[in-house]
Design a protein that fits this description.
Elements (H helix, E strand, L loop, with lengths): L14 H64 L7 H15 L4 E7 L5 E4 L12 H7 L4 E6 L15 E10 L12 E10 L1 H91 L6 H27 L7 E4 H15 L4 E7 L5 E4 L1 H19 L2 E9 L2 E6 L27 H11 L3 E6 L3 E6 L12
Parallel strand pairs: 7-9
Antiparallel strand pairs: 1-2, 1-5, 3-4, 4-5, 6-8, 9-10, 10-12, 11-12
Helix pairs in contact: 1-2, 1-4, 4-5, 6-7, 7-8
Length: 474
């Protein structure tokens, strides 16, 4: 029995189509690169031919200028050309310099028919003989062009050093008609000059880069058009998986909250009344022995403090498990924040913590004053714990967003989602309910809460425009 050679993953049923899509992309890119090579080589050949035509015109102009402005006046004045004479050499040098000025010519050499240098911009070369075959071919009437590249030139990063690409032109110097009509066209020497064409090659390299980018971009667009249907199908499947996971998470969270609510209802009923009696009794004993430093006084204070802490924990459980529905009334967020800071400032003792409130005199809002006070209190209290013995807490407003920054170590953003889950805490002590309670309160008021770091922890509160129209920062 024959078995299928390709067995797709049931969760990803488009593997074969994906393979064909990637194969198509590779084929398109390969074809594009081949096209880049063809076009780039054609462009390079075109640039070289353009420079050769320009060099030929420059050589013809040099031939004409040397003949008209140097050879004719020298023969008429001195009878013959003798470059060993300083006056003649300097006159020829002046003619050459004036002709090549502004044409990026690096060197000019003139050879006699015996391949000996009789003139050069670098005068130290005069008198040297060359065995270059190109000079002999030029003596036979050929015009030669040679592109010489530096071995250190590179296509990356498309920036060549000056003189990386040189065009060498070898041109036969000929007699013109004016002085010797019968000898017109006769070769009397060989002209050689070099030009720096590096900038033209750089242009080709940039052109090559541009074509490559266009080809890759076009290939990418074609691939996306081909791939989008497959991605869409996979995306739908993945979305269904995520929806299932999210639904399971919500169900688990609701079950946990329901269990905690039932537990808290029972515990609060059984604990709250005895705890109140313990707390009030311990407070009375603590006040009675407040002026004594005895074991009984210390024990009474310890019982009172622990009873207060346990009462706070029970209240946290109740607040999170059975959140109160917020009342809708006009409140002032600036007043609430100032009230929280005033209470906390009195509780920090001798710690050096600076509060900076950069808010407008009034922040009108619609919500529950008591719940908002609890939420801001939790956030600011956490900031105080993060700062430690010395630091700074800044509350500011930009547009309709409140920023509460502290100078502590900041959040561990790998646990960003965990911070808003109940019972998760990075402190040595605590219930892990402070931020979740604040988050639920803000959420019930339409306020988006986010956590970030900026030289410490930042709690970001985005106020809803329907409850707080933008009024500008303070």
């Amino acid at each position: 029995m024959l078995r299928p050679r390709f067995n797709p993953d049931p969760e990803h049923p488009f593997q074969l189509a994906k393979f064909l899509s990637w194969s198509s992309l590779i084929l398109i890119v390969a074809s594009g690169l081949f096209l880049v090579v063809i076009i780039s080589n054609y462009a390079r050949e075109t640039v070289v031919k353009k420079n050769e035509k320009f060099a030929r015109l420059l050589a013809e102009n040099l031939n004409h200028q040397i003949y008209q402005r140097f050879i004719l006046p020298t023969v008429l004045g001195f009878g013959k050309v003798e470059l060993k004479q300083k006056a003649q050499y300097e006159r020829l040098d002046l003619v050459v310099h004036s002709t090549i000025h502004g044409f990026k010519v690096l060197n000019v050499k003139i050879y006699d028919l015996n391949s000996t240098i009789v003139y050069a911009l670098d005068s130290s070369l005069v008198g040297k003989k060359t065995r270059d075959r190109a000079i002999k071919e030029a003596a036979e009437g050929k015009i030669l062009f040679k592109v010489v590249k530096s071995p250190h030139s590179s296509l990356w990063p498309f920036k060549l050093k000056p003189r990386s690409v040189i065009l060498r032109t070898i041109y036969p110097l000929r007699i013109e008609r004016e002085l010797f009509p019968k000898n017109e066209g006769e070769i009397i020497g060989i002209l050689e000059f070099s030009q720096d064409i590096t900038s033209d090659y750089e242009t080709i390299y940039y052109f090559q880069l541009l074509i490559t980018v266009v080809v890759f971009f076009s290939s990418f667009i074609l691939f996306v058009l081909l791939y989008v249907v497959i991605l869409r199908a996979d995306k739908i499947i993945l979305e269904r998986i995520r929806e299932k996971e999210e639904l399971e998470r919500v169900i688990y969270q609701n079950e946990k909250l329901a269990s905690m609510g039932r537990m808290v209802a029972t515990i609060s009923h059984e604990i709250k009344n005895p705890l109140g009696i313990i707390q009030s009794s311990a407070e009375m004993l603590s006040k009675k022995f407040s002026r004594q430093d005895t074991a009984i006084a210390r024990l009474a204070r310890a019982i009172y403090e622990e009873a207060m802490r346990l009462s706070s924990i029970v209240n946290d459980f109740l607040d999170y498990a059975r959140p109160k529905e917020p009342n809708e009334e006009d409140v002032d967020l600036r007043e609430i924040i100032d009230k929280c800071i005033g209470f906390l400032r009195a509780s920090i003792g001798d710690r050096d913590i600076e509060f900076q409130v950069k808010l407008p005199p009034s922040l009108p809002f619609t919500g529950d004053k008591d719940l908002l006070y609890r939420a801001f209190f939790n956030i600011l209290n956490n900031a105080i714990d993060a700062v430690g013995q010395r630091g700074r807490i800044v509350v500011s407003l930009k547009d309709s967003t409140i920023f509460i920054k502290d100078s502590g170590v900041g959040f561990d953003l790998s646990f960003k989602d965990k911070y808003l889950e109940p019972f998760f805490t990075t402190k040595a002590s605590g219930t892990g309910l402070g931020l979740p309670i604040a988050y639920n309160i803000f959420k019930s008021h339409g306020i988006e809460m986010d956590l970030a770091n900026e030289d410490g922890a930042v709690v970001i509160l985005r106020l809803p425009p329907e409850k707080y129209p933008k009024r500008g920062g303070g």
